[in-house]
Design a protein that fits this description.
Chain lengths: 152, 729
């Protein structure tokens, strides 16, 4: 048995320790906001926060997440909620499928750098593919979030 | 006959998915669609397929018959009905229709949802408003002329008001008005405005349910190994190792179904979770009969079709006398363009949940065409269509891939075999290696110029495996619809010839966002740029002259193209980009203009190059798509189209060796990422013409504009894509 702490809740699951965290979250815990996109850690759709660091959950064995705090798109983290508000305000999503991963990556960015430059954004978001091409709005939504935070 | 009826008291409302009660209006959209109008001339039997219901709690239920895949259709349709009805659009609940002919044409491709549904939606909205006003007037015993509607209430000139919901009981007993008054477009509150997407919140908090997110009690997970070569079959297989994978429940063979949307067949692994199914699939040992397509080598194929376009082909169009024009030419220009296969690669891979129980079946799938899925499933199960329910989930991208329900048939085949609900999930590798590929093409263009630099003759000879080959195996020449976008070019050229060369298919050929306009938009726009250079003219002036005087072009299509609108978008794009004004050192512009899906789009791109690598800084796109519905969706589609167009220009290339696709994932089938994006500036032309396509027409202009800009900057012309083949990205 492996115990996972996801969004503040404990889940005891009976899976092989090498099962990628992604599939434990989606198929066992049944939180489906975290997406499968490539399975090889290069598209970012499966990003979650593991002890506040963004990781591609398709590459992390579930055993490596034991004892750590996992935050998914369904979870609560101050910057995540602020970013979600900007995502909605600027109509960022088109098909929406990659956006949970984009939001997690953006959350991790703002956790680390409170006022990122375009270069910082490029670096933080380069691992997330959006086939619909919503990148420009993602960038704008990150900047908007920062502006609103500055205004308090 | 009035195409709209009040069906509030009819018993069949339940069959379309609405609870009884409330005011329900229904409409037969076929009278608004040219295609369906022809096929369905007899309208004496009222067969409604579009429904809207106002309940006494004020909620307004709209049945969305089209699929949502990032196209924003659920928002657009909501805004049209709400505006014309003077309803509060936050009270609209969008209910997604299952796949059924009773909802009319549900095939969400061809950039036509708004084009087909705009008029009927407005008409229903206007009628509902009139009925609610009548109901209020009856309640107050006042003339209707003293009543107006606004934001979900009817107002009387005395200041009295009644909420829409409170009028339902009276309104539902009224006849629909025989004459209706539309709102003046200047009074639109939602149509043509910037609106927030109705599903944006769910997309942003992870609660939107895509096909892959569907869960059922006791549901199994499946993955399938298909033959590396298209249409190859299983000779034998060993499932021992796969069955040893923890979580694997069963391994079964799924035979190929030789239909356009039938499964390719292969070996399916059924497991208790997706990961176990994937691992089990990797552990399979399969011996394949590779079949006839094992000889496919895309590099050799390109050489072959290029030879075919360098000799005489079959004539698709012949106007004037091209040979004479060439003979009398002051200058001749000729070029050959080669574009590779592309894969759709939507972020959400093909997947579906199916549950076969006896002779019935229920499916949950991200599909662009639920009626086609329903037909395929019914055929497979040899059961009547009314035993098959296709629930449409959100689509994590479609781009044409999810119009082809082969993956739905797979889920159904497995569910039937194991007698349990099952979800099949393709791996990304499956998606890249077993798609319905965008065609591969070779195009030879030749033109003559007179002394003044006018184009006097134009020959376009191209070869590409046809989409028709997917439906009629053996088709080995481009089909009529693939010829028409080369033949109906909006250029004022007296002598024009289009020919096609032989080009059989060795993989499944499908339609991908903007379809045949990708190769034709590329060759026409790059070639026009070359002609401008040969004529010693500015590409913008040359192009405006090439399009010629204002006119409506006669085509076989009911919607004619208007050269004035085409020139207008080109001029606006140039103006927005400050075309002709000096740019920073080392920067250059390229332009491109294309008419597709009845819309007019021009783009100017600004690039620079450092260490022989292209950087796109700005894209100025202008679209004229007639009356706009949701401006922000149109803007978003143009922004996305610029990125989609850049991805194919920079990286898009699918190749085959020994019949097998060589690419496997986003690692070798790359996409544009955040660090590569330009600023995309979008202008939408104000128009009261009928609404036309938005989802696709922004794509074809991007690649040629980039290639033209590279020429401007470096003097080097690139004829083939992707640019990564030249080391330019």
């Amino acid at each position: 048995m492996i115990t996972l702490q996801i969004n503040g809740e404990k889940h005891k699951i009976d899976v092989a320790p090498e099962m990628p965290l992604l599939w434990a979250i989606r198929d066992i815990v049944e939180l489906t906001g975290t997406k499968y996109g490539c399975g090889i850690g290069i598209c970012g759709s499966c990003k979650v926060l593991l002890d506040n660091s963004p990781v591609q959950s398709c590459m992390i064995p579930v055993s490596a997440a034991e004892g750590k705090n996992v935050i998914t798109i369904e979870g609560v983290s101050k910057n995540l909620q602020l970013l979600q508000d900007s995502w909605t305000a600027l109509n960022v999503p088109q098909c929406g499928f990659c956006q949970p991963g984009q939001l997690i990556a953006a959350t991790a960015l703002l956790d680390k750098i409170s006022d990122p430059t375009d270069e910082d954004i490029n670096e933080a978001m380069i691992g997330n593919i959006c086939r619909c091409g919503t990148y420009q709005r993602i960038k704008n939504a990150i900047h908007r979030t920062v502006e609103l935070k500055k205004q308090g | 006959m009035n195409p709209i009826k009040n069906i509030s008291r009819r018993t069949f409302v339940k069959s379309v998915g609405l609870a009884s009660g409330g005011l329900i209006l229904a409409c037969n959209t076929s009278v608004f669609s040219d295609k369906e109008k022809d096929e369905n001339k007899d309208l004496t039997n009222f067969n409604p397929n579009l429904f809207v219901q106002l309940n006494s709690d004020g909620s307004l239920i709209l049945i969305a018959s089209r699929s949502e895949m990032g196209n924003g259709v659920r928002t657009s349709l909501t805004s049209v009905i709400a505006d014309e009805m003077d309803a509060d659009w936050t009270k609209v609940i969008v209910q997604q229709a299952v796949g059924d002919a009773k909802y009319g044409d549900q095939n969400t491709d061809g950039s036509r949802s708004v084009r087909y549904l705009y008029e009927p939606m407005r008409k229903m909205g206007a009628m509902a408003r009139a009925m609610l006003i009548t109901a209020a007037a009856q309640t107050w015993k006042v003339p209707v002329t003293e009543c107006t509607a606004e934001n979900h209430v009817v107002l009387h000139s005395s200041g009295k008001k009644i909420a829409y919901g409170d009028l339902v009981e009276i309104a539902k007993n009224l006849e629909v008005p025989t004459e209706i008054t539309y709102k003046n477009p200047k009074d639109f509150k939602y149509i043509g405005k910037k609106l927030r997407g109705v599903d944006t919140e769910e997309y942003s908090n992870g609660s939107a349910i895509f096909g892959m997110d569907k869960r059922l009690p006791n549901m199994k997970f499946a993955a399938m190994q298909r033959c590396p070569v298209t249409f190859g079959t299983v000779k034998s297989f060993d499932k021992t190792a796969a069955l040893k994978v923890a979580g694997v429940i069963d391994v079964i063979e799924i035979p190929r179904i030789a239909k356009p949307f039938g499964t390719l067949g292969g070996i399916a692994v059924i497991a208790s979770n997706t990961w176990a199914a994937f691992k089990g699939k990797d552990a399979l040992k399969i011996e394949w009969d590779l079949g006839d397509n094992a000889s496919y080598d895309s590099e050799k194929y390109m050489k072959q079709i290029t030879e075919n376009v360098h000799k005489q082909g079959k004539v698709g169009k012949d106007v004037g006398n091209v040979n004479k024009a060439f003979k009398n030419a002051h200058k001749i220009v000729e070029s050959t363009y080669q574009l590779p296969h592309l894969a759709h690669a939507p972020m959400e891979v093909p997947n579906a949940v199916a549950w076969v129980q006896g002779d019935s079946c229920e499916v949950w799938a991200p599909t662009q065409d639920p009626q086609s899925a329903r037909k395929e499933v019914a055929d497979y199960l040899v059961t009547p269509e009314d035993k098959v329910t296709i629930n449409v989930t959100f689509l994590g991208g479609g781009f044409g891939r999810k119009s082809k329900p082969d993956y739905v048939v797979e889920a159904v085949a497995i569910s039937k075999a194991i007698n349990a609900p099952v979800q099949i999930v393709w791996t990304r590798e499956d998606d890249i290696k077993h798609g319905y590929y965008h065609t591969v093409s070779s195009q030879y263009l030749k033109a003559s110029l007179d002394k003044q630099g006018n184009v006097t003759g134009w020959l376009n000879r191209f070869a590409l495996p046809s989409i028709a080959s997917t439906f009629s195996p053996g088709v080995d020449y481009p089909a009529g619809f693939e010829i028409s976008s080369a033949a109906n070019v909006p250029f004022d050229i007296k002598n024009m010839k289009v020919e096609v060369g032989q080009s059989p298919a060795y993989v499944r050929i499908g339609w991908l966002r903007s379809v045949i306009n990708i190769p034709h938009g590329f060759s026409q726009n790059v070639f026009a740029d070359e002609l401008a250079v040969a004529a010693g003219k500015d590409p913008l002036d040359f192009r405006l002259n090439l399009i010629g005087k204002d006119r409506i072009e006669e085509t076989e299509d009911p919607i004619k193209y208007n050269t004035a609108r085409l020139k207008n978008v080109l001029k606006l794009a140039a103006k927005n980009a400050n075309w002709g004004k000096p740019l920073p050192e080392g920067h250059a512009y390229g332009l491109s203009v294309h008419y597709s899906f009845y819309s007019y789009v021009a783009s100017v791109v600004e690039i620079s190059m450092a260490f022989n690598k292209v950087k796109v800084h700005n894209v100025y796109t202008v679209i004229d798509c007639g009356q706009t519905v949701n401006k922000d969706t149109i803007k978003a589609q143009m922004e996305g189209a610029a990125i989609f167009g850049m991805s194919l220009a920079f990286y898009g290339k699918i190749t085959a060796k020994n019949g097998a696709i060589e690419q496997s994932n986003y690692s070798d089938y790359k996409m544009i990422r955040m660090n590569e994006i330009p600023k995309v500036h979008v202008e939408i032309v104000e128009s009261t013409e009928i609404p036309t396509g938005v989802g696709e027409p922004g794509v074809p202009v991007i690649a040629p504009a980039i290639v033209n800009a590279i020429f401007k900057l470096t003097g080097k012309r690139y004829y083939n894509l992707p640019l990564s083949d030249y080391g330019l990205v």
